[in-house]
Amino acid sequence: MSWKTEWLDRLVGAGEARSEAGRALLEERYRALSRQIPLLYAIGLANIAGLYLATKGAFGSFYNPITPLVLLLIVRLVHWLRARREMLAPERILIELRKTFFYALAFCVGFCGWALYQLSEDNPANHDLVILFGSLAAVGCAYGVSAYLAAARLPILLLGLPLATRLIFSPDPGHIGMGVSLSLILLLILHLLRIHDEGFSRLIESRTGIAAERERARRAERVAKVEKAKAKRTADTDPLTGLANRRAFLRHLARRAAALSRSGDGLALAILDLDGFKPINDTFGHATGDAVLEEVGARLTSVGGRSALAARIGGDEFALLFPRIRTVSGAKAIGAAVRSALEEPFVISGREFRISGCCGLTLLRVGDCDPAQALIRADSALYQAKHSGRAGIAVFSEEMDALNLRRVQIEDSLRLKASQDAIGLVFQPIRDLATGELRAFEALARWNHDLLGPVAPGEFIPIAEQINLIGELSERLLRDAVGEARRWAGSVRLSFNVSAVQLCVAGSADRLLTILAEAGLDPGRLQFEVTETALLVDFETARTNLQQFRAAGTRIVLDDFGAGHASISYLREMQFDGIKLDGSLIASPHDSMRSRRLLKGVLDLCAAMGLPCVAEHIETREQLELLRKLGCRDGQGYLLSPPVDAQAAAAMAGPRLTLLRAGSAAG
Fold first, then answer.
1. What is the pLDDT of residues 323-349, one digit of tens each?
2. Which ranges in the chain are annotated with CATH 3.20.20.450?
3. pLDDT for position 125
């Protein structure tokens, strides 16, 4: 900014349009002036007219040097009357105020010169009138532009005070007194104008500050709303797949169920559990696993379309809601669509992966749309679908309701100490298939409930795992089993199943080995059977516990080999002392050449790895002969011996144990 511009800005004193406060002050000045200035010009014209009439035209006709100023007054009056209808931008207001200052300067100088000229004339009678009307005009015009101090001072300084000074230097004492009085009044008015301007500026500044605070508060509120909405989206969204999370899904399910009770539309709830995802995650890393889950989410979204809701409610568990589904056939069609969506291979970083999913569905209808019950039913259907094998689909039925009721009864009973104590053990012999020699006893849990009758391990063990009772139950059964094994001959081992959940809990090995040490049983006589499922749940923790077992001298046997799809990778990654073949491999190989070849391939694989095999569920002589022929070393099953109680097991494994041939055992 040049010194000339800076000097001009100080002289004009209009303000600035760079800051928020400056712009607000300019706008407020302009708003006030647009109301006041027309009145100011009207006062000026009225005073001129009044003077003309009071002096009876003594200062001449309107065709004299004052006439251009009068015409300019009229032009500016019209300008400001029009300006009242619009609000200018701050930059234009600044220009307009500067123009106003110079117009005011011109008017004041012009009228002051004209008034002084009139006072120099030889008509004293008119002098008082000129001073009266000139002073009134100066005061009125000053207050007319009081919102703009620089312009408001001009009528006082350039019109009022010169007239007062003219009176002070008059030879008439009366005029001198009037001049002094008028000067003091005009100086007071200048002081009041300054105070008014300061108050006006503070008011605008305060108002601007309040407005700024309000705007900041509004912005903060808007930001808070955006952040709140963002936080809500984050809280309701699975960060990996972008689907709804469990919390959002449950809320949406409750809302849909409530709407269902009013609308009468049907609603299908599906819960999907992936098969084969855990090995991908463990073998190829979490990045690959995450990419698979993202693709699963995208495919499930495409299945449902816009009207459905897909959510990720667990690690590899998804849930879906489908509106307007009223029939079982419609629910089955949904399950089939979900299964089809997962059939295409998942291509991640140029590598193909194949997974599937078991799907449990239930229908919500008017009068039967309780969200909590719907989840329980969908879970029951999912449980049934898993029993059907990979990619199983099941829709909840009344039969499942009965099974679910039984499950609830089993869960309630397991929580009672007396019911836990009622769970006992039986022992099934494991024999050498060639010689009939007793190799080991597998300890099997049995529960005969007073009201429910016999409850199979396949029923109560998973429930005990889910309600976190499996550790306590397993430790108590191991203590009992080890106590019985001490009565057997030293050549007979105890085979004990470790729960998948228990094996994946840090410190489980320490507790089980402590039981073994307290009983004083040689660790070499104990073998722990573990399933592939345990390794799928938490491979690292399971491996740590298994390494502790081996370090203590116990044997590790991989159970149900052949039931899954990742067993070979675990044979390669971990050290086992034996393999127990899944019963599905034994069930029908004599009826199918393909099944027989599969069984032979598995046995050859185990032989190549130097791992002895145990075949379970041997129930026919044909199965026994085939296993012998294919080179399977050990076996167990009803053909060889059903499970027996502890007393019978002690008799069979006593010091004078008679080794039976497999053929005689079968007989």
1. 888 888 888 898 899 989 988 888 888
2. 422-666
3. 63
- Cα(615)–Cα(611) distance, integer angstroms: 13
In sequence order, the 6+-apart residues with CB closer than 8 A to the CB of 72 are 103, 106, 107
Residues 414 and 469: their CA atoms lie apart, in Å, by: 8
Helix (H) or strand (E) holding 385: helix 371-387
Reported as a single tens digit per residue, the pLDDT across 270-323 is: 999 988 887 787 778 888 888 999 999 999 988 878 888 999 888 889 999 988
User: What CATH number should be reported for the domain whose range is 246-396?
Assistant: 3.30.70.270
Cα gap 113→293, rounded to integer Å: 92
Q: What is the 3-state secondary structure (H, E, C) of 31-92?
A: HHHHHHHHHHHHHHHHHHHHHHHHCCCCCCCCCCCCHHHHHHHHHHHHHHHHHCCCCCCHHH
Provide the whole-model pTM: 0.53
- Structure tokens, 197: 């301007």
Structure confidence at residue 8 (pLDDT)? 59
Residues 6+ apart with CB under 8 A from 538: 504
For 620, residues 6+ apart whose C-beta sits below 8 A from its C-beta are 590, 639
Q: Is the pLDDT of residue 479 over 90?
A: yes
Q: What distance lies between CA 83 and its chain's CA centroid?
A: 55
Q: At what angle do helices 90-119 and 67-83 cross, to 10 degrees?
A: 150
In the chain, pLDDT over 90 holds for what percent of residues? 20
Quick check: 599 and 579 in contact, CB under 8 A?
A: no
Taking the CB of residue 425, how many other CB atoms lie within 10 A of it? 20
pLDDT, one tens digit per residue, over 159-181 is 888 888 887 887 778 778 888 88
> 37 pLDDT exceeds 60?
yes
**CATH 3.30.70.270 domain range(s) in the chain:** 246-396
- Homologous superfamily (CATH) of 422-666 is EAL domain (3.20.20.450)
SS3 557: strand
